[in-house]
Automatic annotation (TrEMBL):
GO-annotated cellular components: cytoplasm
GO biological process, one term: citrulline biosynthetic process
Transmembrane feature ranges: none
Keyword Transferase set for record: yes
Record's protein name: Ornithine carbamoyltransferase
Length: 311
């Protein structure tokens, strides 16, 4: 039987499947045992498979971790810029999806509008992976859950505090709170609150997101403190100054981290604007696991791709 699972979002994926992917990612990471990055895995589940990686926005981690991950598993990749494809010049997403499906076995796309991703998945005959949209970033949070658990054990029941913009990365944390069963607090200005739908999802799973405008109170007892850029790729540059002014009180600095649990972890999906949303002292300090997160994008996405293809 041909398996065809698209990985569109954490809230759209069965919790058991999500758990399975984290376990598989851990197992594959362990099995590599730190060998050189270009050396293939013992198992070659993507042998003979071709994967298209489409980017309509810039990327360092997503682009390289998917590319390396496919190669380690024996597959081949094509890294494509949306602007260089006919997609960027008026060809419909539906036609692009149907054409790509004749050439490749799996599509990963980073795009602006969620609708582009959904249409790609609707019309493609091969699985589609969400590599970030304006609304969500599920692959990142799979890596983040894996990273938390590597350092501190099960994330279920832990207190995770997001300080800053209620953006696409927060959205996937809210989905993960519902699916993995942790307590999520959002602290940020009301003007940059997360979408209600994301909060409703977590609440519907019995893990309502707490909203606290006071960052110092919010981080009290936190097991994990997370932030992200104050201006995302889809935000207009004209909003930069206003956002900075609104978000400055939510900067993650030594004072704020000091109010979390003594063994709290600090995460940031990167790229960061050092000394804006988080100080270098926190990013490079004892709580920080930001580069483990970046590495785990590779392992987590390998597991996501295997699940998509059932291999
Ligand atoms: N965190 C993340 O997705 O990074 P890139 O934008 O570099 O892919
Ligand atoms: N919120 C950021 C995440 C980048 C990985 C953005 O969308 O630009």
């Amino acid at each position: 039987m041909t398996v065809m699972n698209s990985f569109l979002d954490i809230h759209k994926t069965d919790p058991e499947a999500l758990r399975g992917m984290i376990a598989n990612a851990r197992a594959m990471k362990d099995a590599r045992g730190g060998r050189p990055k270009g050396e293939p895995d013992d198992e070659q589940p993507l042998k003979g498979r071709m994967v298209a990686l489409i980017f309509e926005k810039p990327s360092t981690r997503t682009r390289i971790s998917f590319d390396v991950g496919v190669r380690q598993m024996g597959g081949q990749t094509m890294v494509l810029s949306g602007a260089d494809m006919q997609l960027g010049h008026g060809e419909t997403i539906a036609d692009t999806a149907r054409v790509l499906s004749r050439y490749v076995d799996l599509i990963m796309i980073r795009t602006f509008e969620e609708q582009t991703l959904l249409e790609m998945a609707d019309y493609a005959d091969v699985p589609v992976i969400n590599g970030l949209t304006n609304r969500t970033h599920p692959c990142q949070i799979m890596a983040d859950v894996m990273t938390y658990e590597e350092h501190r054990g099960p994330i279920a029941g832990k207190k995770v505090v997001w300080s800053g913009d209620g953006n696409n990365v927060f959205a996937s944390f809210a989905h993960a709170a519902g699916q993995f069963g942790f307590d999520l607090t959002f602290t940020g200005p009301e003007t940059l609150d997360p979408e209600k739908a994301w909060l409703e999802f977590a609440a519907s799973k019995g893990h309502p997101v707490t909203i606290d405008r006071n960052p110092e109170r919010a981080v009290d007892g936190a097991d994990l403190v997370v932030t992200d850029t104050w201006v995302s790729m889809h935000d207009p540059q004209s909003a930069r100054e206003r956002r900075h002014n609104q978000l400055r009180p939510y900067q993650v600095n030594d004072h704020l981290m000091g109010l979390a649990k003594p063994d709290a972890l600090f995460m940031h999906c990167l790229p960061a604007h050092r000394d804006d949303e988080a100080t270098s002292s926190v990013m490079d300090g004892p709580h920080s696991v930001i580069f483990d997160e970046a590495e785990n994008r590779l392992h987590a996405q390998k597991a996501v791709m295997r699940w998509c293809l059932g291999v």
